[in-house]
Amino acid sequence: MKTKWRLITEFAKTNSYLFLATFLSGLLYNVLTLLIPISIGRFYEFNFGFSSHRLQIIKSVPFINTQVFTEFLIFFFCIVGIRFVFEYINKYLIALICEKFAKNLREKLFAHQLQVATEVYDQKGIGKYLLRYSGDLKSIQNYISRGLLRFLQDVFLIAILLVAIAYIDINLGLILSGSIIIFSLILFFINKLLYTISVKRRNKRSQILSFINTRLRGIHTIKAFNKYTPEEKRYRKRSGELLEIGKKYQKVASSIQALIPALTYVMLGILMSYVYYSNNAKDSTVDQSVLLILILLIISFLPIFRRILRVSIVWKLGNISFEKLIKILSLKAENSLDFQNLELENKRIAFKDITFSYPNSDREVFKNTSFTIEPKNTTAIIGNSGAGKSAFVGLLLKMYPPKKGNITYGKNTIDQLSEKSIRKNIAVISKDFPLYGKDVYEAIVYSRKKHKKHKSVALLKDLQQFEHPKDVLTLDDRIGDLGNILTGSQKKILMYCRALLTNKPILLIDEPFEELNPETEDYIKSLLNGMKGKKTIIILDKNPIDGLDTDNSYFIKENQFIKQL
Ligand SMILES: Nc1ncnc2c1ncn2[C@@H]1O[C@H](COP(=O)(O)OP(=O)(O)OP(=O)(O)O)[C@@H](O)[C@H]1O
């Protein structure tokens, strides 16, 4: 089980030098930030002749204790220059850590999503996941940069500042520390309220994305049935709800934003009163140059203090996003078992007493049924729509587990085998496994080797020999989204090319001749008949097919595979 901290520490371990460099540059730039107001105080003292015993300690710093103004100025500009360099390095390194962490997460996320169990995708649309790659990764980057690295640097700087101020005047140090604790507590509770609202807001956003996703995927239907108005209405309702939650969120968020400067000014007021009254009491440790340093220190401290008070929003939003990401990373994944080379060309596949329902349904598609697929035979499986042909494919490819019974591939049972080991042996031609990629080449050739390209050109030409010249595709032709700009026949031919190029021992073909032109149908029939005895061929269709030689035929009827004698 992954946790947020495990993800962060794993990443930090592999990038330890980057973190170390960030920490060091942060430390240097913070120390230099402190030196600037102190050196201004020294300049003031030097020019106006004040002398504070509290500033004696600074006099041991080389260069600052010079009587020559130009030397002091050089020293001052050096600090400014070096500080600039380190601030730049520090900011760049923090941003770099965030970019690298986001890269690491999005790659983990995608690799995992490719392996997530099929049933998860049966239930959720992809719109649910898009925000994970944009909004959530952004919140996580914020969490790392503002919530973690800069926060730690800020806390460190504030700690040094408090020590410096306490050194000048212990009571001032105590007042500041006390105010920080009280203000942080106040804001912590308001932020808790903000958290609940922001969870709702994010969920709503996510729902809206999946709404848009399903509508845009069904755009043809919306256009053909003139469903613009009802869909707009539905969208407006959702969008209105998002606005309402957005308003609630902004009310609380604005109150926090307004409260932070207010609280810092209250703190300033308390400090001024302290300085005023202690000066009047004549026991003051605060003389003019020290007062100037104090004011400058506090002014440079205010934005840091505001950042610290604001950090819990960053934490909360980051935590929501981490939770969502971890939830996906914890979804059951395929291929937890090692890959094995099964060499199924000579092995029998047997379904033994199989009972199967889809994971989200109670209907038993198969009930206690058995059958076998003999190697290098052509087996036809015939069943009406809804009989369970796709369910059979899902079982065979280990997309879904059987409820009861066992499937064996040679000597191995399905639960001993990783999905990859099984699928390595089976090439599928089916509408359920659409073409994807930008062009024909991407859609049919999964190996980038040169000889594959030559082979694919030849095969493509061969399978299209009976097609009308205007429909003949080349490797560079675009296929649109999931092949949507292709004809049914073109899609089917490309699916044949894709399957045959993989050269797997088992060929699984769902409705092999649906959509094909008669001449191409005859040609592919002759190809398949020619492969008989060389490959294991499994044909799925609604009706028996004329002109195709088969060794075995099964009907799927009433939850059973029935062998036709
Ligand atoms: N993902 C799913 N979740 C739940 N039930 C499903 C799912 N897919 C299909 N079904 C149901 O399971 C039964 C078998 O469906 P299946 O798709 O396997 O049949 P089929 O023979 O392939 O039909 P067709 O040729 O129309 O695709 C049907 O009643 C169908 O409604």
Automatic annotation (TrEMBL):
One of its GO terms (cellular component) is plasma membrane. SMART domains: AAA. Coiled coil: none annotated. It is found in: Cell membrane. It comes from Flagellimonas lutimaris. Residues 20-317 form the ABC transmembrane type-1 domain. GO terms for molecular function: ABC-type oligopeptide transporter activity; ATP binding; ATP hydrolysis activity. The keyword Transmembrane helix applies. The chain crosses the membrane at residues 20-44, 64-86, 148-168, 174-195, 258-277, 289-309. Gene3D superfamilies: ABC transporter type 1, transmembrane domain, P-loop containing nucleotide triphosphate hydrolases. The keyword Hydrolase does not apply. Residues 349-565 form the ABC transporter domain. It is a multi-pass membrane protein. Keywords: ATP-binding, Membrane, Nucleotide-binding, Transmembrane, Transmembrane helix. This is ABC transporter ATP-binding protein.
